[in-house]
Amino acid sequence: MKMGEIPGVQLGVIGALFLSVASSVSIVICNKALMSNLGFPFATTLTSWHLMVTYCSLHVALRLNFFENKPIDMKTVILFGILNGISIGFLNLSLGFNSIGFYQMTKLAIIPFTVLLETIFLKKQFRRLKLSLFVLLLGVGIASITDLQLNFVGSVLSLLAILTTCVGQILTNTIQKRLNVSSTQLLYQSAPFQAAILFVSGPFVDQCLTKQNVFAHKYSSLVLAFILLSCLIAVFVNFSTFLVIGKTSPVTYQVLGHLKTCLVLAFGYTLLHDPFTARNIAGILIAIVGMGLYSYFCTNESKKKQGGDVSSMPQIKEKDTTPLLVNHQDRENGVKNSIV
Predict the structure, then answer these.
(1) The dihedral sign for the CA sequence 121, 124, 127, 133
(2) b/e string for 79-117 if b means 16 or more Cβ within 10 A?
(3) Residues 126, 118: Cα–Cα separation, whole Å
(4) N or C: which end of the chain has fewer CB within 10 A?
(5) What is the chain's alpha carbon radius of gyration, rounded to the nearest angstrom?
(6) Handedness of CA 323, 165, 340, 286 (dihedral sign)
(7) 206 with 47: CB under 8 angstroms?
(8) In angstroms, rounded to a whole number, what is the distance separating the alpha carbons of residues 166 and 112?
(9) Rounded CA gap, 139 and 136, in Å?
(10) Per-residue pLDDT tens for 185-238?
C-alpha cells in the first residue's frame, strides 16, 4: 500500500458514513410526514418505487459515464436482489404484526446474528469489539424499546427478517470484495430485481398491514410531491448503504443504523416535541459510549493491521495476485468491524 492511499481510504469511509447518516435521517423525516401527517401508509410499495427511481438514476449516471458497468453473473445478481427485496418485506411485516418494542428488539438482534454468521462461516474474529457492541445494543435498547408483546406469527416473521437481512448484508460486502465490483455497479444491477419483487408483493403486504388499497388511494399534489422527494432521497440512501457495507462491513453498517436511531429520537424530541424521558436520554448516552468504544477498537485494530501489512509486504503482494480466490477477511478485519 502506498503512503498516500491510507488518508484517501479513510476520507472515503468518512464520506460514506456521513452520506448514509444524513440521507437516512432525512428520509425518516420525509416518510414520517408522508405517512403520519399526509395519510400515506404504504411503506412496502413506496420502497419499490424508491428502488425503481434509484435504478433509473443510476442508468442515467451510466449513460453520462459517471461509472463503468461491470457484468456480474446473472444468477448471483438475481438471487441477491430477490433476497434483499424479501428481507425488506419481512421487516415491514414484522413491524405490522409486532409491537414497536418487539420490532426494535428485532433490529437490535441483527448485529449479534451477523457477528455469529460471520464468525461461523467467514471465520472472523471480533475480540474486544464484542464489548463495545454489547454497550451499544444496551443503550439503544434502553432508549427505544418500550414494550415486548409476543405472538407466534410476529415472532416467525421477525426471525425471517433477521436471517434474510443478515445474509443479504453479508453478501453485499462479500460480492463487492470477491468479485471486485463497486457499490454502484452492484446496486445498478441488483436494484431492478429488488424493485420487481417489492412491486409485485408490496401492494399485497400493504393491504395486509393497512387494510387499504394503494391503487385506490387519493393522491393529492402534496402527497405526490412528498413521494417524489422521498424517492430522490432514497437514491442516496440506497447508494450509501451499498457504499458503507462495501467499504466497511455489515456489522459497522448496523452500528451506524443505531446511531441513526439515536439521531431520529433526538430530532423528534428537539424539533417535533415527541415524548422524551430520562430513560431515553440515558439510553442514547450509553449507546454513544458504545459507538465510541467501537470506533476506538476498530481504529486500534486498523493500526495493528497496517503495521502487520508493512512487515509482511511480500506475502501480501503474492496474495493480491488472485483477488477473487482469497478470503479478504484477514485484511479487512482491522478496518471494518451491514436496507427500509
Answers:
(1) negative
(2) ebbbbbbbbbbbbbbbbbbbbeebbbbbbbbbbbbbbeb
(3) 9
(4) N
(5) 20
(6) negative
(7) no
(8) 10
(9) 5
(10) 999 999 999 999 999 999 999 998 899 999 999 999 999 999 999 999 999 999
